[in-house]
Amino acid sequence: MKKTERINDLLIFLNNKRTFNLKDLMERYNISKSTALRDIQSLEQIGMPIYSELGRNGRYEILDSSILSPVFFTVDEMYGLYFSLLTLNGYKTKPFEIENIALENKFRNVLPENVRNNISIMNQVLSLEVTNHSNFSPYLKEILQGIFTEKVYCLTYSKKETNKQMVAQFIRIHSKFGQWYAKIFNIKTEKIQILRCDKILLITETNDFKSKKLEELLDYLDNFHKEPNAIDFTVIVNKQGKDIFDKENYPSMKIQSDNENFIITGYFNKAEEDFIANYFLKFGQSINSISPVMLKKLIYDKAKSIEMHLNSL
Hints:
alpha+beta; Arc Repressor Mutant, subunit A
């Protein structure tokens, strides 16, 4: 058996193991001790986290962070995976920043030369438009791992230039226009909130509160946002307004065609008045009508505020 075939078979053989001995490899592949040692070095070079223990039998432990996959990919599948990596480059922060770099290095080290060359060309000629914010979110990895393990955290976050604290359990993270957001369950208020991830200054695990099952929290998400005093709205826009909506909209909104116009319907909570005014201000003269009147006034007041600011310059 050639070395490359043996290394691939080793990856499959060790997939569900946490420990192994040199003797295991020597007997399985009928190889010498020195060859087995070189094979282990090859596994370490491609990223398998192996920890050696002293002893006559050469015992090794595979660290828990290792997940080995006995899956072989076609060339087109490798192109698809690398394309997925490129789409993440538009984000200033990613949940697994270091791991993405290591994965890209593995691509370049293990692929055939012709495939490597084509991937280099893909990197040069493929441009993906992503709204890249300068805001840094340092806890994306911890947030995602906290969701998997259903942990409760003490959070420190920034709100209107003031630091606040909260005890919460993370439910979901999502990206919108290059910005990361987290949906969380506030343990004390028993309500679901949304935080911008770059506003989270510190997270510390706590065992003082009982966590909820993720399935239970996910069930809350469908109806958590609309409050009893939420205000419904209808805004009619032209084709230009439809284009603006397509580029930026939110789960509380929907749009439908009405002859040559388009009807945007939705709702906003009392605490979101400033947000909704800023949002529809972007539509400018593409708006044909607004209901209720209070929303029209919110947008008008926002425009007047901008006008007064510009006049004061």
